[in-house]
Amino acid sequence: MIELGSKAPDFTLPDPKGNLYSRDQVAGKHGLLVVFYCNHCPFVKHIREKFAEISAEYIEKGTGVVAINSNDIENYPDDAPERMAEDIETFGYRFPYLFDETQEVARRFDAACTPDFYLYDASLELVYRGQFDDSRPGNDEPVTGSDLKAAFDALLKGEKPSEDQKPSVGCNIKWKS
Q: Does some domain include residue 5?
């Protein structure tokens, strides 16, 4: 896992319509959440409605949010940009959902799975890299986003989130051969 305190890697990536977004454009006055995301993963499907709700709440509070799909779309066509556009519409994402075709951005972040969350403070230093909550497909735990929300709330209070962070669990990023 990337070390806490690490600077957010720079990136410029397109959304499904071809609009380019850079790290600095998507960052908010209080920081930036970068989440590695996709359409087909059961772990993403399990949280996406709650994630859309929570991300909208913290965007309103001045935190930037961006989702990045780095999966190999040749072998996983459900993750192709046109399908990303459908999910943006269906789930009302208020954050840019970007496509990392070369997978270079995922490598810079040391991203391992979907979903994988990285929360940076206003100086773009990493303060949280962990799970959404304890819910998993099939474990009957409610989807609350409690771990991520606690990190967001600490950030907004000017505090550091707890360093006791549980890693994200999900589908591994589908790397190209």
A: no
Secondary structure (DSSP) of the chain: -PPTTPBPPP-EEE-TTS-EEEHHHH-BTTEEEEEE--SS-HHHHHHHHHHHHHHHHHHHTTEEEEEEE---TTT-GGGSHHHHHHHHHHHT--S-EEE-TT-HHHHHHT--EESEEEEE-TT-BEEE---S-S--TTS------HHHHHHHHHHHTT-PPPS--PPP-SEEP----
Query: Is residue 145 assigned to a domain?
Result: yes
In a domain, 1, yes or no: no
pLDDT by position in tens, the chain (length 177): 789 999 999 999 999 999 999 999 999 999 999 999 999 999 999 999 999 999 999 999 999 999 999 999 999 999 999 999 999 999 999 999 999 999 999 999 999 999 999 999 999 999 999 999 999 999 999 999 999 999 999 999 999 999 889 999 999 999 998
Q: Show the domain range for 168.
A: 12-172
| CATH code assigned at 134 | 3.40.30.10
| pTM of the complete model | 0.97
